[in-house]
Known about the structure:
By secondary structure, this protein is of the alpha+beta class. It has one domain. The protein has helices at residues 2-7, 42-53, 96-102; strands spanning 12-15, 21-26, 58-63, 66-72, 75-76. The strands form two sheets. The protein has a three-stranded antiparallel β-sheet with strand order 3-4-5, covered by helices on one side. It has a two-stranded antiparallel sheet with strand order 1-2. Strand 1 and strand 2 (21-26) form a beta hairpin. The longest helix has 12 residues, at 42-53. The two termini are 17 Å apart. 13% of the residues are buried. This is DAC domain-containing protein. Pfam families: DAC (PF02457). Residues 1-85 form the DAC domain.
Amino acid sequence: MLAGALAKVDGALHIRTDLQLHSFACLLDGHRIKNENRARGARYNSALRFTAQYPETIVVVVSADRPVSVFRQGKEISSEYNIGDSPHCILFPLPFEEWLLLT
């Protein structure tokens, strides 16, 4: 129920290293950078800008029509990562609502 409700909100979820949800429906901002791709849309480019300006930040972009994208230091890093490379990868993670109950 909570996951479905959060998915309907436009904007970012703000989760810190303590794994707590601190805010939602956040707008990410940052200065223009050279590797933006206007064809990818506002979420993609906002994530690029924000992580370029705040390099210690990781941004995860979820879209209905594309795979999940992960950004760090002004670059999309999910395209560089092969899920089979990690021995610690959980192939069948808990549903979001169950995960929230654990935290």
